[in-house]
Design a protein that fits this description.
heterodimer; A: alpha/beta; Rossmann fold; 2 domains; four-stranded parallel sheet; 11 helices; 8 strands; 46% helix; B: mainly beta; Porin; 16-stranded antiparallel beta barrel; 4 helices; 16 strands; globular
Amino acid sequence: MIKTLEQAIKQPLSWFLILMLLVCFSGTANAQLKVITTTQDIASLVQAVGKGLVEVESLTQGYQDTHFVQAKPSLMLKMNRADLLIYQGLELEVGWLPLLLQGARNADIQLGKHGNLDLSLAIDPIEVPQGKLDRSMGDVHAFGNPHYMLDPGNIKPIVYFIADHLSKLLPAQAAQIKSNRKQFINRFEPKLKEWKDQMAPFADTPVVTYHRTWSYFLRYFHLTHIGTVEPKPGIQPSPSHLSDLAQTMKEKNVHLILHAIYYQDKFSKLLAGKSGARVLTLPPSVGGVPEASDTIKLFDYLVNQITRALSSNE
Amino acid sequence: MKWSTFVLFISVFLASAIPTRAQDSPEDLYELQERIKRLERRIQRMEKGPTAPAPQNAESTPSSSKAEKSIPVPFPEMPRATGSSADSAFATATGLTRTFNPAISVNGLFLGTYRSIENNIPDTETKTGLDIQEMELQFTANVDTYLRANFRVSFEDDEVEIEESFVDLLLFDRVALRAGQFYTHLGKHNLLHTHQFPFIDVPLVNREIFGAEALLEIGVGLSYLMPLPWYSEWVFEFVEGDNSNLFDAPLNDDFAYILHSRNLWDLNEDTTMEIGGSYSTGRNGTGAALGNRNRTTQIAGGNLTLKWKPARQARYKTLVWQSEYIRTWKETGVNALSGLDNPDDNKGGMYSYLQYQFAEQWWIQARYGYFGFHQAEAANDQQRTTLLLGYVPSEFSAIRLQYSYIDEDISNEHQVLLQLNFSLGSHPAHRY
């Protein structure tokens, strides 16, 4: 068997065939700018701004936990063919994106290149830990809470950032990008007012969340965050933590526990049983449920679900 | 100071540009304002590093002050370094700030062993008792614009050893180069460090063919990501050939060559299949004094892995099925008296295991290993059946209990291992 292998390697014909194969597959060029995003939230905005000019694909789906993504080689392949990588940053993707970037072998999208865009520059992060950090604090994000796409107030600066960057990469299409951006903002701003009006009656309502996924959302709509089911980020709650939290919830009259779809809901349900509140399981990202197919529809869905849940408690 | 001056300069420059353009449209004004904000944030990050407080601007203050009342600050204020060159905590004799220090990590493995036999033989390496299986110290950093380096030492009993230690370089798109001492791409298990092993011990076939140290070699490797619709990586490695079980030829030009192909397909969103193949050839040390004839060692291996991890519950469920087969052909030189070839020393074996994560912190695993294919005497074959229960509180620690039934030659053995595994510091993510 080995003898035939050796013979095969010595045959010029087999080398020729391998070369032909390579040429065939490498010749698939496409005129559009290929954009890879880490989340569907970003992909949805890139789609709006780069309509007709870019081909965008997200590495994760909205129902996936973006802290916990497998650095699958198939994702490396997608990144190998990309012209631009856009990610949320603030260490959200720290467990898998560096591995993918190394495996992608694409010099254009490495850190410091024009093909590498950290979207968190467009916003001011909240919950930036002060002082010394330590692993005993759980999966803490040193640069602040990375779930900023859930702040409707952040969408406009983010859209402007994406448009600015796409115009740099496609200078000839700058006018088209600007008009796409305008179209989106014109659709988005009346919606923003609508959501604010819908949520206004519930200002200062206290809520509990499973993880600090919803901090930006709560801040924007002036809901009060009483605590989290997780005692520390990424850490399972102990019975004593749950009973303490249930006690606080009763004192402060909390009726709602917000729970992201990708977490197991057994602890949230346990807490609900102890405190009398109800668990509302929500998609924290575009694509998390079929109804939330783009950024505007996601906020529509979230605002509707939360206002419905809060009004039924009154 | 330098950056602040730069901000000032940019701000003044942009501000002077604003009035003329602002008359055109409020949109343009907003665009420029946002650009300035991003520049300011970029500079703030460079100046203050990760622990900088969130910048407060006029727009967000009313709402955020309200939120801050309700959200407790998770970590109390403590004194911290500024990162400025005037800060004595950051200045060093080499003129580099500590920001440029490599990522440092330590992996510790403590092992408790129970064996049903051989406890009364003084020289046996593993006996019933407690032991440090390995302590590993690792440094990782970018060397400069071009190179990325790994340096790893392991401490085992009284020995200190340089384990893997290499530099990586992206030569062109798709082509990467590795140089130094590294685990060669011969099969799948050979690439793993002790703390990454799916079971506490090395599979039987790897131990018998490569020896206790695995196929760790000094050399240069080139890897190429094929432009194919699926992930296909081809690796060619040119190494010294020091492994005493396989190569270890005494002449200067007796190197070993390794070729490996790694192919992955996503069968669906949750399941990935990996098929790999390896081939290696090199001169061995047998009969070298008698000339160069007929003393080549060849190794071939194949592996198949199926991994299922449901996208919607990635934190909670995993199932892995992995199998690997490795064989060798080893020519043993020429008989000095008769001038005839000595009989070849051929070996072969396999393992196959299942790993199932049934809850966030719990794993149950089973493995079967066989060694004894292609051998002249069938009586020398060995089998090993292993079961493992793992408790993994976080990515940084694990406690695992393993039972093996070992069927070797004439004696049978029951073995129980209990391992504590911890990692501290900044450890690079493991590959898929």
